[in-house]
Amino acid sequence: MKTAPKQYIPKFRDISLPDRARLLAETYALRRDGNPLRQSAMSFSCLGKVVSCDAACLERWGRALDPMIRNLRRSVSIGRPLVVGLAESGIVPSALVHRNLIHIGADAGWICSSRRSGNGLAFVERHSHGKDHILPLPPECHHPSPGPDHRPAPWSELWFAEDEITTGQTLFHLCLSMCEALNIRTVRLLAFTDIRDEAQRRHFSRAMDAAHIRFSLHTVLPEFDAANPQKEPVKPLFAAAETKGRRQSGYPDGADQWRLTRIRPARSVQIRPAMSAGASGWTGSSQRTDAIHPADLAGTILPVGEAVDLCLLLLAAAPGLRFRHITLSPWRAGHGVIRSRLDIGDRYYLYNPETLSGPLWILADPVDEKVADAALRTLGAAGYDARMLPSAIFASGMAPPMLPPLLQPEGGHHESR
Question: In angstroms, rounded to a whole number, what is the distance separating the alpha carbons of residues 255 and 259?
Protein backbone atom coordinates (compact mmCIF):
# COMPACT_ATOMS: atom_id res chain seq x y z
CA MET A 1 0.00 0.00 0.00
CA LYS A 2 1.28 3.47 -0.84
CA THR A 3 1.90 5.80 2.05
CA ALA A 4 1.76 9.56 2.28
CA PRO A 5 5.08 11.11 1.27
CA LYS A 6 7.17 13.36 3.42
CA GLN A 7 7.17 17.04 2.59
CA TYR A 8 8.31 17.39 -1.01
CA ILE A 9 10.83 20.18 -1.59
CA PRO A 10 11.25 21.16 -5.26
CA LYS A 11 14.84 20.82 -6.44
CA PHE A 12 16.54 23.08 -8.94
CA ARG A 13 16.09 20.42 -11.62
CA ASP A 14 12.30 20.68 -11.12
CA ILE A 15 12.06 24.43 -11.66
CA SER A 16 14.58 25.83 -14.13
CA LEU A 17 17.07 28.20 -12.56
CA PRO A 18 16.00 31.25 -14.63
CA ASP A 19 12.35 30.63 -13.71
CA ARG A 20 13.25 30.13 -10.06
CA ALA A 21 15.27 33.33 -9.88
CA ARG A 22 12.41 35.20 -11.51
CA LEU A 23 9.85 33.77 -9.05
CA LEU A 24 12.00 34.92 -6.14
CA ALA A 25 12.26 38.37 -7.72
CA GLU A 26 8.47 38.40 -8.09
CA THR A 27 7.89 37.59 -4.40
CA TYR A 28 7.38 40.86 -2.53
CA ALA A 29 7.87 41.57 1.18
CA LEU A 30 5.34 44.21 2.31
CA ARG A 31 3.99 45.88 5.44
CA ARG A 32 0.38 45.67 6.59
CA ASP A 33 -1.56 48.85 7.28
CA GLY A 34 -3.81 49.00 10.36
CA ASN A 35 -3.65 45.34 11.40
CA PRO A 36 -2.09 44.93 14.89
CA LEU A 37 -2.30 41.12 14.61
CA ARG A 38 -0.19 40.96 11.48
CA GLN A 39 2.43 43.57 10.58
CA SER A 40 4.38 41.77 7.85
CA ALA A 41 2.91 40.66 4.55
CA MET A 42 3.91 39.40 1.16
CA SER A 43 2.49 39.16 -2.29
CA PHE A 44 3.33 37.50 -5.58
CA SER A 45 3.26 38.70 -9.16
CA CYS A 46 0.56 36.21 -10.23
CA LEU A 47 -1.91 37.75 -7.77
CA GLY A 48 -1.82 41.02 -9.72
CA LYS A 49 -2.01 43.16 -6.60
CA VAL A 50 1.16 45.27 -6.76
CA VAL A 51 2.18 44.63 -10.38
CA SER A 52 0.09 43.65 -13.38
CA CYS A 53 -0.23 39.96 -14.23
CA ASP A 54 -0.61 38.51 -17.72
CA ALA A 55 -0.99 34.97 -19.09
CA ALA A 56 2.79 34.44 -19.20
CA CYS A 57 3.04 35.31 -15.51
CA LEU A 58 0.31 32.79 -14.68
CA GLU A 59 2.22 30.16 -16.67
CA ARG A 60 5.45 30.79 -14.73
CA TRP A 61 3.74 30.13 -11.41
CA GLY A 62 1.79 27.22 -12.88
CA ARG A 63 5.03 25.58 -14.01
CA ALA A 64 6.46 26.07 -10.52
CA LEU A 65 3.55 24.14 -8.98
CA ASP A 66 3.66 21.39 -11.59
CA PRO A 67 6.60 19.29 -10.23
CA MET A 68 5.01 19.01 -6.78
CA ILE A 69 1.70 17.89 -8.24
CA ARG A 70 3.31 15.36 -10.56
CA ASN A 71 5.47 14.02 -7.73
CA LEU A 72 2.36 13.43 -5.61
CA ARG A 73 0.64 11.71 -8.53
CA ARG A 74 3.63 9.37 -8.93
CA SER A 75 4.08 8.70 -5.19
CA VAL A 76 0.55 8.11 -3.95
CA SER A 77 -2.96 7.41 -5.17
CA ILE A 78 -4.62 10.82 -4.97
CA GLY A 79 -8.05 9.66 -6.16
CA ARG A 80 -10.42 12.60 -6.65
CA PRO A 81 -8.88 15.66 -4.96
CA LEU A 82 -10.99 18.69 -4.07
CA VAL A 83 -8.94 21.89 -4.41
CA VAL A 84 -9.81 24.65 -1.92
CA GLY A 85 -8.80 28.33 -2.18
CA LEU A 86 -9.49 31.12 0.30
CA ALA A 87 -10.57 34.59 -0.88
CA GLU A 88 -9.02 36.74 -2.09
CA SER A 89 -5.40 35.66 -2.37
CA GLY A 90 -6.08 31.93 -2.66
CA ILE A 91 -8.24 32.23 -5.78
CA VAL A 92 -5.38 32.36 -8.31
CA PRO A 93 -3.17 29.68 -6.65
CA SER A 94 -6.10 27.28 -6.35
CA ALA A 95 -7.07 27.90 -9.99
CA LEU A 96 -3.52 27.03 -11.06
CA VAL A 97 -3.41 23.89 -8.91
CA HIS A 98 -6.78 22.73 -10.27
CA ARG A 99 -5.74 23.39 -13.87
CA ASN A 100 -2.51 21.42 -13.37
CA LEU A 101 -4.38 18.48 -11.82
CA ILE A 102 -6.79 18.35 -14.75
CA HIS A 103 -3.84 18.52 -17.16
CA ILE A 104 -2.28 15.34 -15.72
CA GLY A 105 -5.59 13.50 -15.90
CA ALA A 106 -6.81 13.82 -12.30
CA ASP A 107 -10.56 14.02 -11.68
CA ALA A 108 -10.40 17.12 -9.51
CA GLY A 109 -12.90 19.68 -8.23
CA TRP A 110 -12.35 23.30 -7.20
CA ILE A 111 -14.07 25.56 -4.65
CA CYS A 112 -13.17 28.92 -3.11
CA SER A 113 -14.38 30.75 -0.04
CA SER A 114 -16.22 34.06 -0.21
CA ARG A 115 -16.62 37.01 2.12
CA ARG A 116 -20.14 37.55 0.79
CA SER A 117 -23.29 36.30 2.49
CA GLY A 118 -24.50 32.81 1.65
CA ASN A 119 -24.85 29.22 2.78
CA GLY A 120 -22.12 26.68 3.43
CA LEU A 121 -19.31 26.35 5.94
CA ALA A 122 -18.83 29.64 7.84
CA PHE A 123 -15.40 30.23 9.37
CA VAL A 124 -13.21 33.00 10.73
CA GLU A 125 -9.72 33.92 9.49
CA ARG A 126 -8.65 35.62 12.69
CA HIS A 127 -5.51 37.45 11.54
CA SER A 128 -7.06 38.70 8.28
CA HIS A 129 -8.40 42.14 7.37
CA GLY A 130 -11.55 40.35 6.18
CA LYS A 131 -12.24 37.74 8.85
CA ASP A 132 -15.60 36.19 7.96
CA HIS A 133 -15.75 33.63 5.15
CA ILE A 134 -18.27 31.20 3.73
CA LEU A 135 -17.16 28.09 1.82
CA PRO A 136 -19.64 26.26 -0.45
CA LEU A 137 -20.07 22.62 0.56
CA PRO A 138 -20.50 19.88 -2.06
CA PRO A 139 -24.06 18.51 -2.34
CA GLU A 140 -23.19 15.27 -0.53
CA CYS A 141 -22.58 17.29 2.66
CA HIS A 142 -26.20 18.42 2.71
CA HIS A 143 -27.87 15.08 2.01
CA PRO A 144 -25.68 12.23 3.34
CA SER A 145 -27.06 8.71 3.22
CA PRO A 146 -27.88 7.56 6.78
CA GLY A 147 -26.87 4.35 8.53
CA PRO A 148 -24.67 1.51 7.23
CA ASP A 149 -25.51 2.29 3.59
CA HIS A 150 -23.67 5.62 3.78
CA ARG A 151 -21.39 5.76 0.77
CA PRO A 152 -17.85 7.19 0.93
CA ALA A 153 -17.62 10.81 -0.13
CA PRO A 154 -16.69 11.16 -3.81
CA TRP A 155 -13.74 13.40 -2.91
CA SER A 156 -10.74 11.45 -1.64
CA GLU A 157 -8.41 14.29 -0.55
CA LEU A 158 -8.53 17.99 0.27
CA TRP A 159 -5.90 20.13 -1.46
CA PHE A 160 -5.63 23.58 0.13
CA ALA A 161 -3.85 25.98 -2.25
CA GLU A 162 -2.51 29.16 -0.63
CA ASP A 163 -0.25 32.02 -1.58
CA GLU A 164 1.37 31.86 1.87
CA ILE A 165 0.82 29.92 5.09
CA THR A 166 0.99 32.46 7.89
CA THR A 167 0.06 30.78 11.19
CA GLY A 168 -1.81 27.62 10.18
CA GLN A 169 -4.73 28.32 12.50
CA THR A 170 -7.36 28.83 9.81
CA LEU A 171 -6.10 25.86 7.79
CA PHE A 172 -6.17 23.59 10.84
CA HIS A 173 -9.78 24.37 11.73
CA LEU A 174 -10.88 24.11 8.11
CA CYS A 175 -9.20 20.70 7.92
CA LEU A 176 -11.19 19.56 10.96
CA SER A 177 -14.49 20.88 9.63
CA MET A 178 -14.17 19.78 6.02
CA CYS A 179 -12.70 16.35 6.77
CA GLU A 180 -15.68 15.74 9.05
CA ALA A 181 -18.20 17.03 6.51
CA LEU A 182 -16.76 15.05 3.59
CA ASN A 183 -15.52 11.94 5.42
CA ILE A 184 -11.94 12.63 4.26
CA ARG A 185 -8.76 11.85 6.22
CA THR A 186 -6.03 13.06 3.82
CA VAL A 187 -5.04 16.69 3.25
CA ARG A 188 -2.39 18.31 1.04
CA LEU A 189 -1.20 21.84 1.76
CA LEU A 190 0.31 23.61 -1.26
CA ALA A 191 1.63 27.16 -1.02
CA PHE A 192 4.13 29.46 -2.63
CA THR A 193 5.70 30.10 0.81
CA ASP A 194 5.27 29.00 4.44
CA ILE A 195 6.42 31.68 6.89
CA ARG A 196 5.70 29.75 10.10
CA ASP A 197 8.58 28.94 12.40
CA GLU A 198 9.54 25.36 13.25
CA ALA A 199 7.64 25.39 16.56
CA GLN A 200 4.43 26.36 14.77
CA ARG A 201 4.93 23.63 12.17
CA ARG A 202 5.52 20.99 14.87
CA HIS A 203 2.44 22.13 16.77
CA PHE A 204 0.38 21.92 13.58
CA SER A 205 1.67 18.43 12.85
CA ARG A 206 0.86 17.18 16.37
CA ALA A 207 -2.64 18.68 16.19
CA MET A 208 -3.31 16.99 12.83
CA ASP A 209 -2.04 13.67 14.18
CA ALA A 210 -4.34 14.01 17.21
CA ALA A 211 -7.26 14.59 14.83
CA HIS A 212 -6.26 11.47 12.82
CA ILE A 213 -5.76 13.50 9.65
CA ARG A 214 -2.88 12.60 7.34
CA PHE A 215 -1.29 15.58 5.63
CA SER A 216 1.70 16.64 3.57
CA LEU A 217 3.13 20.13 3.04
CA HIS A 218 4.52 21.41 -0.28
CA THR A 219 6.00 24.87 -0.91
CA VAL A 220 7.33 26.35 -4.14
CA LEU A 221 9.99 28.59 -2.56
CA PRO A 222 11.27 26.92 0.63
CA GLU A 223 14.43 29.03 0.62
CA PHE A 224 12.26 32.15 0.89
CA ASP A 225 10.45 30.56 3.85
CA ALA A 226 13.70 30.19 5.77
CA ALA A 227 15.06 33.62 4.88
CA ASN A 228 11.89 35.67 5.27
CA PRO A 229 13.14 38.94 6.77
CA GLN A 230 9.65 39.98 7.93
CA LYS A 231 9.12 37.05 10.30
CA GLU A 232 7.54 38.09 13.58
CA PRO A 233 6.51 36.25 16.77
CA VAL A 234 3.01 34.78 16.65
CA LYS A 235 0.98 33.63 19.64
CA PRO A 236 0.67 29.85 20.17
CA LEU A 237 -1.52 28.12 17.64
CA PHE A 238 -5.08 27.00 18.07
CA ALA A 239 -6.09 29.46 20.81
CA ALA A 240 -9.67 29.27 22.06
CA ALA A 241 -10.61 32.34 20.01
CA GLU A 242 -10.28 30.27 16.85
CA THR A 243 -13.03 27.65 16.53
CA LYS A 244 -14.07 25.07 13.98
CA GLY A 245 -16.18 26.21 11.09
CA ARG A 246 -19.95 25.84 11.40
CA ARG A 247 -22.52 24.98 8.79
CA GLN A 248 -24.68 27.94 7.86
CA SER A 249 -28.01 27.64 6.06
CA GLY A 250 -31.28 29.48 5.61
CA TYR A 251 -29.70 32.60 4.09
CA PRO A 252 -30.93 34.00 0.76
CA ASP A 253 -29.29 32.26 -2.17
CA GLY A 254 -27.45 35.44 -3.14
CA ALA A 255 -27.23 34.52 -6.83
CA ASP A 256 -27.94 38.15 -7.75
CA GLN A 257 -24.60 39.12 -6.14
CA TRP A 258 -22.62 37.30 -8.84
CA ARG A 259 -22.03 37.18 -12.56
CA LEU A 260 -22.06 33.77 -14.26
CA THR A 261 -22.99 32.02 -11.03
CA ARG A 262 -22.74 28.49 -12.40
CA ILE A 263 -19.01 28.75 -13.15
CA ARG A 264 -17.88 30.46 -9.94
CA PRO A 265 -15.89 28.34 -7.45
CA ALA A 266 -17.30 30.34 -4.54
CA ARG A 267 -20.79 29.24 -5.54
CA SER A 268 -20.35 25.52 -6.27
CA VAL A 269 -17.76 22.85 -7.02
CA GLN A 270 -16.17 23.44 -10.42
CA ILE A 271 -14.94 20.50 -12.47
CA ARG A 272 -13.99 22.31 -15.66
CA PRO A 273 -10.87 24.39 -14.98
CA ALA A 274 -10.75 28.14 -15.52
CA MET A 275 -7.55 27.60 -17.50
CA SER A 276 -7.20 24.62 -19.83
CA ALA A 277 -7.69 23.57 -23.43
CA GLY A 278 -10.87 22.88 -25.29
CA ALA A 279 -12.66 26.11 -26.26
CA SER A 280 -12.27 28.36 -29.26
CA GLY A 281 -13.01 31.84 -28.11
CA TRP A 282 -15.45 33.14 -25.54
CA THR A 283 -18.58 31.43 -26.89
CA GLY A 284 -16.89 28.18 -27.91
CA SER A 285 -17.75 28.91 -31.55
CA SER A 286 -17.15 31.52 -34.19
CA GLN A 287 -20.57 33.08 -33.64
CA ARG A 288 -20.44 36.64 -32.29
CA THR A 289 -23.24 37.44 -29.82
CA ASP A 290 -22.28 41.10 -29.47
CA ALA A 291 -20.14 43.74 -31.15
CA ILE A 292 -17.71 43.56 -28.23
CA HIS A 293 -15.81 40.29 -27.98
CA PRO A 294 -13.16 39.54 -25.33
CA ALA A 295 -10.60 38.78 -28.01
CA ASP A 296 -10.95 42.42 -29.09
CA LEU A 297 -10.05 43.75 -25.66
CA ALA A 298 -6.63 45.21 -24.93
CA GLY A 299 -5.09 46.88 -21.91
CA THR A 300 -5.61 46.10 -18.24
CA ILE A 301 -8.59 44.61 -16.41
CA LEU A 302 -9.14 45.96 -12.89
CA PRO A 303 -11.15 43.25 -11.10
CA VAL A 304 -12.82 44.22 -7.83
CA GLY A 305 -12.32 41.71 -5.00
CA GLU A 306 -13.57 38.23 -5.75
CA ALA A 307 -14.21 38.97 -9.43
CA VAL A 308 -10.58 38.03 -10.04
CA ASP A 309 -11.65 34.52 -11.10
CA LEU A 310 -13.66 36.07 -13.95
CA CYS A 311 -10.54 38.01 -14.83
CA LEU A 312 -8.72 34.70 -15.36
CA LEU A 313 -11.40 33.77 -17.88
CA LEU A 314 -10.92 37.04 -19.76
CA LEU A 315 -7.16 36.50 -19.95
CA ALA A 316 -7.90 33.06 -21.34
CA ALA A 317 -9.98 34.54 -24.14
CA ALA A 318 -7.55 37.39 -24.85
CA PRO A 319 -4.02 36.47 -23.72
CA GLY A 320 -2.78 39.98 -24.56
CA LEU A 321 -4.73 41.34 -21.60
CA ARG A 322 -3.31 41.78 -18.10
CA PHE A 323 -4.98 42.46 -14.77
CA ARG A 324 -4.33 44.57 -11.66
CA HIS A 325 -6.45 43.68 -8.64
CA ILE A 326 -8.58 46.25 -6.78
CA THR A 327 -8.09 44.47 -3.50
CA LEU A 328 -9.11 44.42 0.15
CA SER A 329 -5.45 43.92 1.17
CA PRO A 330 -4.33 47.02 3.13
CA TRP A 331 -0.58 47.61 2.66
CA ARG A 332 1.57 50.64 3.32
CA ALA A 333 2.74 52.73 0.40
CA GLY A 334 6.41 53.61 0.36
CA HIS A 335 7.49 50.17 1.59
CA GLY A 336 9.10 47.66 -0.74
CA VAL A 337 7.68 47.50 -4.24
CA ILE A 338 4.62 49.66 -3.38
CA ARG A 339 5.35 53.24 -4.42
CA SER A 340 1.80 54.61 -4.38
CA ARG A 341 -1.76 53.66 -3.43
CA LEU A 342 -5.25 54.78 -4.40
CA ASP A 343 -7.89 54.26 -1.70
CA ILE A 344 -11.13 53.07 -3.33
CA GLY A 345 -14.12 53.78 -1.09
CA ASP A 346 -13.68 52.68 2.52
CA ARG A 347 -12.04 49.26 2.15
CA TYR A 348 -10.45 48.71 -1.27
CA TYR A 349 -7.05 49.67 -2.68
CA LEU A 350 -5.28 49.94 -6.02
CA TYR A 351 -1.48 49.86 -5.85
CA ASN A 352 1.07 51.50 -8.17
CA PRO A 353 -1.52 52.95 -10.59
CA GLU A 354 1.20 54.91 -12.40
CA THR A 355 2.46 51.61 -13.88
CA LEU A 356 -0.90 50.64 -15.43
CA SER A 357 -1.12 50.17 -19.21
CA GLY A 358 -4.33 51.39 -20.79
CA PRO A 359 -7.04 51.13 -21.71
CA LEU A 360 -8.32 50.34 -18.22
CA TRP A 361 -11.42 48.20 -17.70
CA ILE A 362 -13.13 47.86 -14.32
CA LEU A 363 -14.69 44.44 -13.68
CA ALA A 364 -17.05 43.85 -10.75
CA ASP A 365 -19.86 41.54 -9.67
CA PRO A 366 -23.24 43.21 -9.06
CA VAL A 367 -22.67 43.15 -5.29
CA ASP A 368 -19.59 45.38 -5.77
CA GLU A 369 -21.09 47.92 -8.17
CA LYS A 370 -20.68 50.74 -5.62
CA VAL A 371 -16.99 49.89 -5.27
CA ALA A 372 -16.68 49.88 -9.07
CA ASP A 373 -18.33 53.33 -9.23
CA ALA A 374 -15.94 54.61 -6.55
CA ALA A 375 -12.98 53.20 -8.50
CA LEU A 376 -14.15 54.97 -11.66
CA ARG A 377 -14.43 58.29 -9.81
CA THR A 378 -11.13 57.89 -7.96
CA LEU A 379 -9.18 56.94 -11.08
CA GLY A 380 -10.75 59.79 -13.03
CA ALA A 381 -9.86 62.30 -10.32
CA ALA A 382 -6.25 61.02 -10.42
CA GLY A 383 -6.08 61.53 -14.16
CA TYR A 384 -6.60 57.95 -15.35
CA ASP A 385 -9.06 57.11 -18.14
CA ALA A 386 -10.92 54.03 -16.90
CA ARG A 387 -14.16 52.50 -18.13
CA MET A 388 -16.54 49.84 -16.91
CA LEU A 389 -16.15 46.52 -18.69
CA PRO A 390 -19.20 46.29 -21.01
CA SER A 391 -21.91 44.14 -19.47
CA ALA A 392 -22.48 42.53 -22.88
CA ILE A 393 -19.26 40.58 -22.26
CA PHE A 394 -21.27 38.52 -19.76
CA ALA A 395 -24.32 37.99 -21.95
CA SER A 396 -26.48 35.00 -21.08
CA GLY A 397 -25.37 31.73 -22.59
CA MET A 398 -21.69 32.55 -22.94
CA ALA A 399 -19.43 29.71 -21.93
CA PRO A 400 -16.16 30.34 -20.10
CA PRO A 401 -13.05 30.42 -22.29
CA MET A 402 -9.93 28.50 -21.45
CA LEU A 403 -6.18 28.95 -21.55
CA PRO A 404 -3.95 26.41 -23.29
CA PRO A 405 -2.71 23.51 -21.20
CA LEU A 406 0.43 23.96 -19.14
CA LEU A 407 3.22 25.17 -21.39
CA GLN A 408 6.45 23.22 -21.69
CA PRO A 409 9.43 25.03 -20.10
CA GLU A 410 12.04 26.12 -22.59
CA GLY A 411 14.46 23.29 -23.26
CA GLY A 412 12.53 21.01 -20.92
CA HIS A 413 10.19 18.10 -21.15
CA HIS A 414 7.12 17.14 -19.17
CA GLU A 415 5.84 13.61 -18.96
CA SER A 416 2.40 12.90 -20.38
CA ARG A 417 -0.06 10.75 -18.52
Answer: 8
